[in-house]
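Protein in question quoted for reference:
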Amino acid sequence: MNQRVDIDELLADDDLDSKLRARLVLVQEIRQFSIERLGLPDNGSYSSYVNLQQPYVIQNLFAAPELSIRLHQWCYPVIGCASYRGYYDETRLLAYIEKLQSEGMEVYVGRVPAYSTLGWFDDPVLSSFLDWPDYRLAGLLFHELTHQQLYIDNDTTFNESLASAVQQVGTTLWLESNNERASLEEFRRWLVYRDEAIALIVATRSQLSELYGSDLSDDEKRLQKNQRFQEAREAHERVAARHGIERGFKPWFATGLNNAKIGSIAAYNSRVTAFVNMLEASENNFPGFYQYVELLAELDRGPRDRCLDAWEKGAVAASGACPAIE
């Protein structure tokens, strides 16, 4: 944060690298769209730039027991509990991983290219994501700004799925506004592939939950667990081949699977469809959408989950589980 440089100051420098200049101008255009069309916070976030000298800003640690899909929770001042723990210091991270593994926990570490301070500070643009394809850069900014718009305590899935939904719909609208037909088609193909890959991961987690809750011996559970992971890897290869995806989730599957890794994806994406359906019902009126989501955020966890279930299935009116959307 101390290394932030104002983007306007950088752009005023005639000697600024032309490629960096073009990317920073693009950020300003995306930021303006996020305010005017998506109703996201109009503040100082992403008005400054930092060169990190590495491809990530932080490493997030996820953990789960060997025979459980339940992610470990860590609780913090102000923001409440979350199913991940972030580290800047790799030495401390490795020491804590060793401690968790000695207690029988499985761990997964995801390197994070961007991080939101939830509006407590003016988040900078980082070199770790500035050179991403245009639609991915736009989507990331929309995602992180949504965390500033609304973030509730103790519900990682709600927060991340909400941000992912705004990212998805917002990116589509941004590409349409710029008449980026080729990029829009590429983005839509990616969404279909991504949805199938995530559905596969969520289904695998559901199968594991059933397995772990069965009366089988622990040894038999371990055997079948490994079989489920192998089946998931093979199924993903077929999904990627069908959509012509060269990379996608391939490295993620190839580097080994465990309960923590599977849970990290499910936690971030399992409610996206519900929020996308809300946006469609509101005809992409983002301020009205945010007001409605705030109503859901005020519900207790059980009623809130039942309402999200109804939105996911497209059966809100029949369910009686949700407030009316205006």
In short: The beta strands are 5-6, 48-50, 58-65, 74-76, 80-82, 85-87, 105-112, 125-126.
